[in-house]
């Protein structure tokens, strides 16, 4: 593993665990067993490091999403598998990381918004259109509107003003949103298949 990869991986581990604001460059240097001076050879400041960490993570997420869709039996299966994949991400993630990025690292936040608009929304639109052809997604929905609603919903679940950390479990919020969305867009045929898959996975 190269020095840059070590820095990026170690930083991501700390950001996911404790949020971004509370982690210093000293913390990162100590965590990966590298001098702070070496880190600064690759990244001029914490802001640049946060942006690089996020870009790497988003690329991994994009590859994972594409892999899940290609291996799923149908659109309903893909939606459930994507949620299972999200559970692993949320399990290791401190909800304040999203809040910290939005408030203190505008460049990284802009990258996330770009990813949201260019990858997540487009993927969701394609998935809904595909589901309509398969007969599992309602024909009367406007995919452009619903895809944007769904992606914004995920972001909303991380809003600590609306869902304070002490009162709400971030993962539980996302599961409620996902269930509400899935059952809302499905046809009766899709609804039955969704229940079938959920029972299989719950057992």
Explain the overall architecture:
77% of the residues lie in helices and 0% in strands. The chain has one domain (57-202): Tetracycline Repressor, domain 2, CATH 1.10.357. The radius of gyration is 19 Å and the shape is elongated. The protein starts with a helix and ends with a helix. The protein contains ten helices and no strands. Helix 1 (3-18) packs across helix 4 (46-71) and helix 4 (46-71) packs parallel to helix 7 (106-134). It is an all-alpha fold. It has helices spanning 3-18, 25-32, 36-42, 46-71, 75-91, 96-104, 106-134, 143-156, 170-185, 188-202.
Name its key features.
mainly alpha; 203 residues; 10 helices; Tetracycline Repressor, domain 2
Number of helices: 10
Structural class: mainly alpha
How would you name the CATH homologous superfamily? Tetracycline Repressor, domain 2
Q: How many strands, which pairing sense, and closed or not: the largest β-sheet?
A: none
N-to-C SSE series? HHHHHHHHHH
Q: Secondary-structure blueprint of this entry?
A:
Layout: H1 3-18, H2 25-32, H3 36-42, H4 46-71, H5 75-91, H6 96-104, H7 106-134, H8 143-156, H9 170-185, H10 188-202
Short description:
With 203 residues, the chain is mainly alpha-helical.
């Amino acid at each position: 593993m190269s020095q840059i990869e070590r820095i990026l991986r170690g930083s991501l581990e700390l950001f996911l665990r404790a949020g971004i604001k509370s982690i210093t460059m000293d913390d990162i240097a100590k965590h990966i067993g590298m001098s702070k001076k070496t880190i600064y050879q690759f990244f001029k400041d914490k802001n640049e490091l946060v942006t690089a960490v996020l870009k790497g993570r988003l690329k991994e997420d994009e590859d994972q999403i594409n892999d899940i869709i290609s291996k799923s039996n149908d659109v309903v299966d893909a939606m459930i598998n994507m949620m299972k994949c999200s559970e692993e991400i949320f399990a290791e993630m401190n909800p304040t990381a999203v809040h910290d990025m939005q408030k203190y690292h505008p460049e990284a936040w802009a990258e996330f918004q770009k990813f949201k608009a260019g990858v997540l929304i487009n993927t969701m639109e394609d998935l809904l259109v595909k589901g309509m052809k398969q007969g599992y997604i309602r024909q009367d929905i406007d995919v452009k509107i619903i895809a944007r609603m769904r992606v914004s919903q995920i972001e909303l679940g991380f809003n600590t003003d609306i869902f304070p950390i002490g009162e709400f479990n971030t993962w539980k919020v996302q599961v409620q949103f996902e269930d509400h969305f899935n059952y809302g867009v499905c046809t009766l045929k899709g609804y039955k298949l969704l229940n079938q898959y959920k029972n299989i996975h719950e057992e």
